[in-house]
């Protein structure tokens, strides 16, 4: 079944803990937490100390998206602070093989992320190290942007690559995800939908998560 990962970038920061607990109760699968450094992306968000503060509030998987240059510098810290999946941008490091190996050595699931303009060929040599591949469906840095339709072809190609190589990493998508774009991504091959502004703007989060599932159920071929 498709997994739903609320991006807490769209939460009310004055009540961050409550928002995470409410999404947990609403039935989400992962909690997606963006770490932005103001350099790799033009925005600044949460750091390891925020992970540490909210970690005791839920048992859900913390899905850490590192939007930072030289992510190797932060792997120890986010791992110790409670991240379960740690994803690094292939564009942010000269040493992607080493970064993924370090994440694995820390006992965490390793993910690689591709910006919309990055070709899948960039990650071909390291796919066997990945538990998750995150396809950005907007340019990273901000919530509330429009889904980039060309991402669908990339998701389809990645699914084919996974089958051809006999691998089992999850395919995650992030940016502009609503019921329609989420359904299209699931049809293309996505396993995990990150949703920020659309999900947080719904009045009933539990219903919205169920609705994500029912929208995707309707197609019948990926549940
Ligand atoms: O990584 C991100 C932006 O860089 C996000 O996870 C972002 O929060 C997605 O938000 P939305 O669903 O509103 O597009």
Question: What secondary-structure arrangement, pairings included, does this model have?
Answer:
Layout: E1 3-6, H1 16-26, E2 30-36, H2 48-54, E3 61-67, H3 75-80, E4 85-89, H4 96-105, E5 109-114, E6 132-136, H5 151-165, E7 170-174, H6 179-188, E8 192-195, H7 197-200, H8 205-217
Parallel strand pairs: 1-8, 2-3, 3-4, 4-5, 5-6, 6-7, 7-8
Helix pairs in contact: 1-8, 6-8
The chain binds ribulose-5-phosphate.
Task: Characterise the protein shown here.
This protein has an eight-stranded parallel sheet with strand order 1-8-7-6-5-4-3-2. It has a single domain, classed as TIM Barrel (Alpha-Beta Barrel), CATH 3.20.20. Helix 2 (48-54) links the parallel strand 2 (30-36) and strand 3 (61-67). The protein has eight helices and eight strands, in the order E-H-E-H-E-H-E-H-E-E-H-E-H-E-H-H. The termini are close together. With 223 residues, the chain is of the alpha/beta class. Helix 6 (179-188) crosses helix 8. Bound molecules: ribulose-5-phosphate. Residues 7, 9-10, 32, 34, 65, 138, 140-145, 174-177, 194-198 line the site of ribulose-5-phosphate. Ribulose-5-phosphate is lined by residues 7, 9-10, 32, 34, 65, 138, 140-145, 174-177, 194-198.
Give the mean pLDDT: 96
Give the bound compounds: ribulose-5-phosphate
CATH structural architecture: Alpha-Beta Barrel
Q: What string gives the helices and strands in order?
A: EHEHEHEHEEHEHEHH
CATH topology term: TIM Barrel
Quickly describe the structure.
34% of the residues lie in helices and 19% in strands. By secondary structure, the protein is an alpha/beta fold.
């Amino acid at each position: 079944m498709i997994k739903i990962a609320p991006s807490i970038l769209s939460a009310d920061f004055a009540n961050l803990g409550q928002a995470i607990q409410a999404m947990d109760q609403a039935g989400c699968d992962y909690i997606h937490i963006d770490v932005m450094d103001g350099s790799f992306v033009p925005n600044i968000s949460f750091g390891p100390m925020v992970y540490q503060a909210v970690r005791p509030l839920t048992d859900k998987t913390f899905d850490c998206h590192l939007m930072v240059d030289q992510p190797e510098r932060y792997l120890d810290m986010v791992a110790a602070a409670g991240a379960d999946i740690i994803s690094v941008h292939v564009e942010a490091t000269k040493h992607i093989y080493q970064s993924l190996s370090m994440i694995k050595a820390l006992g965490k699931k390793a993910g690689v992320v591709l910006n919309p303009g990055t070709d899948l060929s960039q990650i071909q040599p390291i796919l066997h190290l990945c538990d998750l591949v995150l396809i950005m469906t907007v340019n990273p840095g901000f919530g509330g942007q429009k889904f980039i339709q060309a991402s669908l072809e990339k998701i389809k190609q990645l699914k084919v690559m996974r089958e051809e190589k006999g691998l089992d990493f999850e395919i995650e998508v992030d940016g502009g995800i609503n019921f329609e774009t989420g359904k299209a991504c699931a049809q293309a091959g996505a396993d995990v939908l990150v949703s920020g502004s659309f999900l947080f703007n719904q009045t009933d989060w539990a219903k919205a998560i169920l609705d994500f599932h029912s929208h995707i159920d309707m197609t019948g071929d990926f549940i």
